[in-house]
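Figure-free illustration: sequence to structure, shown twice.
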Amino acid sequence: MTEEEIVATYGEEKQWKHFAELKGKFENSDKYHLYENYFDMPGIVLCARMVDNLEKNAGGKQKSKMCKMWRDAIDAFNNAYKPEAFAAHTGGYFPGVKDEPYLYMHKCSEDIRRWLKELRAAGKAVFLATSSCSDYCDHIARKVLGDDWKDYFDVIVTNSKKPGFFSEPPNRRPFYSVVDFQEGTKVKELERGKGYAQGNWQTLMILLRQLTNKEEPKVVYIGDSLRSDTFPPKKFANWSTVLICEEMEAEGMEEDRTQNGPASKRARHSENDYDPASRAILVSDLWGPFLTDRSTSGSEVVTVCGHILRSSADICVPHLEYLAALPLDHKFTTFKDSSSEWAGFHPGKPRSLRK
């Protein structure tokens, strides 16, 4: 849409009618669907083309045909990413990741491996909670961390079905044992060194209390999804959250050196460096700004993603390398700090916020 078309449809402040509802719960509804990760990217193109085709050819039956189109799109996604497709080696996604994994992923650096070991050596409990099923998780983790990947974590939770892991009550989200990548019987108590499936954050907290010997351990949850890893753990569990947002590095950052203390306390990566190839994919003039926009009067308008990030994440970094390069006791400014509404970006603010 052109700028003129956007203003004509959404008004001078560019406010979508479901904005207030979405920023309050940030989950799918019968009115809209969130496309916010790389799994979803083909769906954005697919649905856009389907809508264009229906608007061109549906005549006066667009509404009914749009509803059917959406059901078909959801069925297609469920078929493409259904868990059993990994073992069966079927579909358009899993075979590619299995056959040529390093086209789609990078090995973890020695810094990250060292950092994970240091966390555990310092008495921190380190857990992995992923919505991926156990066989797919094992495949990815072996390629990224190595065959000993389980040794980096105190407990592993697969098929956690976030955000339900956080938002649904424990009686509806029991843990299950995992044997040979198959989910087994219900489990009431978790143990260190084991892997489980599904579950809920409340039962996990019982184990974390045992592992840390603290009645109310402080939990920091790190992930790359606003919908699954940032909004729900903050809202339902009141955990501290770190958002991984690689778009920061692709766009470029400008470091505020007053935030991070002496040079020895700052990440040793250059915040002004970015990969041009990544930038071509991650930063596009076709889509609007990710965090803020401007109304026709010139005032700043915070986007849905900008609002969720600022209200749900404590800090935001381009990738784990920035955390692994810092001492474990490093003190970060957060989005809640009064110094700046965007003080949680590390090691620097995206350049778009400096305009």
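We now fold a second protein in the same way, so the two outputs can be compared directly.
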Amino acid sequence: ETDLRAHTSSADFTTDFWYNERPAPDKASQVYYSTNYYTERTIELLQNYTAKEKETTQNNTKIWIHLCYQAVHGPFEDVPTWERSKSPFWNNVYGDMLYVLDNGIKNITNELKNTQLWNDTLIVFFSDNGGPSSATASNNYPLRGSKESPWEGGTRVAAFISGGFVPLNIRGTTSGAFMHVADWYATLSTLADVDPSDIYNGHEIDSLNVWPMITGENTTNIREFLPITEQSIIWKTQYKYFSSTETAFGFNGWSTKNATLLNGTAKGCTNCLFDILNDIEERVDISNKYPEIVELLAAKLATYKYYTNITMSDKELSNYTCSNLKIADSNWPHNWPWVIRGKDNKIENIFAGFVFCFIIPSFCMIMCLKAMLFAENLRVHG
């Protein structure tokens, strides 16, 4: 059983908690509830930064905090007794988790203001994927599909930006900017005066600076083609093509406003096309009407090839022992390839490859001081 208390597990290891680049069982033992720990650690980092800034008037160091709470991701683990509230949610534990998460964001916001960093701060808050196909955990209405599916319900998420850095004229507004989650890298790098260029295996990064679109300085979409998954691609922000919608997991149907799942047996499709500007629910396949667009996007999708891998370097691997360890928990039927071994060859920690933000949280907040953001409901695909 995995929970929010130091991310402990009943599998063949003790904790899955890292500090910098190493497992930190000693740190994990100090954590009672991770949401509170991450908030306290963030505030500590802000205070340390402020103290260093006061040491010299010449210091103009920019900082980045990537804060990935585990809350409110499942499994639901109730908060400390003294922080429980009479939640109006359908699930009291979920409501408590959200309450503590909200308080954490409030405390961090207050610290940014208390340390006079708010005016130079840009905050990005976004989800890493659509909600799972469970009426007790999420509701993707009116979008079709769920997490682990190529439908809009699995890949299109809500996002908002905040902070004193956000131009006054766009505060409180809604943006329809079309972007990929990877675009935050080039966008925030550019705002922080950092060159985002990075050639790998002959390929430049896919990330683009979308700040001019977010602020309204540029209303022209800078992407013609946007591959979403191995099976889907969007053209000119409007036409979405699927080579196939079949997935091992996920949900093909829709939800109602009250989170009732509909068409749980809805069938997927192959070589289908949807107009996601005029048919946001992806109900009408228009592939027969526009065969030339299907042909164009099928050919374009086939041009994308893998040029990266997840293999670690020999130096990185020197800290680990390769293992075919299989976690016993039926909810996590994965083989984790890297383990850290301590005294008596006992497994101390698992290296899962994706730490916190990619597979653990349902919310991520990015803060980049001395250059940072605000608007609402950005159209983000990831």
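Summary for the second example: The two ends are 28 Å apart (CA to CA).
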